[in-house]
Amino acid sequence: MKRVVAPFHRIGRMLVSNVYLLDGGPGDRWLIDSGHWSERWQLLAELRATGLRPGELTGLLLTHRHSDHAGNAAYLQREHGLRVLCHRADAAVLDGSAPRGRLGVRGSALERALGAFENAFPARLRVDQALEHGDVVAGLEVHLLAGHTEGSVFFRHEPTGCLLTGDTLLTARPPLTILGAVTPAHDAFSLDTPGAHAALDAFHAAGWRYEHVLAGHGSPMVGDARARVMAALDRQRVSRR
Ligand SMILES: [Zn+2]
């Protein structure tokens, strides 16, 4: 467990995707995303190492429904009584009341295989609280940036300037997330890539400030993150022309 910017910590040893702990003290301890089910042991071990039992967490916030982020949500809800919150649009897919947009249709052979795996083994659960754009929960503003999934969100923490971006803004290049890079929603793993990119542009155009990016994949970007992200996105736009 490594502190990023208090009260946010990054759970260590998670290789597939990032899990963050917002530790505001007893009664205000939240996980943001839960990792893939294949890394459940690492997640529990890291929590144990901090002296926290999963049942002492206040709740779990999901940036989106994909199984590498929501993969332990049903387990934590069932076994440890955690409340799970995510945007209404992804909640409806998670509980089966809305159709599941499918991946595996674009990208390299590896990317298509990973997309097919997501189609075959999606996260499923009944969310305890569906979030709406503009809600504030655990001191985090909920911003809907649909496109990567139907209900992908940013969580923005105004007091610290932390922005938790899920897979709509990454700090590593998928699917090999050891390569650091500023990357908007990745085409092969997104339902509506142009929509996700447009939502990211609209977020910036609206003037929302942030200092640090805590992405779903890749290392945290600490300090001056907004300017660095904008510069990287501009460079990518120029190189695509
Ligand atoms: Zn995703």
DSSP, total strands: 15
Helix content: 25-40%
What would CATH call the homologous superfamily?
A: Ribonuclease Z/Hydroxyacylglutathione hydrolase-like
Question: Structurally, how many domains make up the residues?
Answer: 1
What ligands are attached or bound here?
zinc ion
Report the CATH topology name: Metallo-beta-lactamase, Chain A
| Ends distance | 41 Å
CATH architecture tag: 4-Layer Sandwich
User: Biggest sheet, open or closed, and with what strands and sense?
Assistant: 7 strands, mixed
Major sheet: arrangement of strands: 1-2-3-4-5-6-7
The oligomerization state is: single chain
Query: CATH class, please?
Result: Alpha Beta
- The dominant shape is globular
Overall pLDDT, averaged? 93
Structural class comes to alpha/beta
Order of helices and strands: EEEEHEHHEHHEEEEEEEHEEH
Q: What is the tally of helical segments?
A: 7
| Low-confidence sequence ranges | none
Task: Give a written overview of the molecule.
The protein has 241 residues and is α/β, with parallel strands linked by helices. The chain has one domain (2-240): Ribonuclease Z/Hydroxyacylglutathione hydrolase-like (Metallo-beta-lactamase, Chain A), CATH 3.60.15. 29% of the residues lie in helices and 24% in strands. The protein has seven helices and 15 strands. The protein has helices at 40-49, 67-70, 73-80, 88-94, 109-120, 193-205, 225-240; strands at 2-5, 8-10, 20-23, 29-32, 59-61, 84-87, 129-131, 136-137, 140-144, 153-157, 162-166, 169-172, 180-184, 212-215, 221-222. The chain has a seven-stranded mixed sheet with strand order 1-2-3-4-5-6-7. Strands 8-9-10-11-14-15 form a six-stranded mixed sheet, with no helix packed on it. Strand 4 (29-32), helix 1 (40-49) and strand 5 form a beta-alpha-beta unit. The radius of gyration is 16 Å and the shape is globular. The termini are far apart. 44% of the residues are buried. The mean pLDDT is 93. The structure holds zinc ion. Zinc ion binds at residues 64, 66, 148, 167, 189.
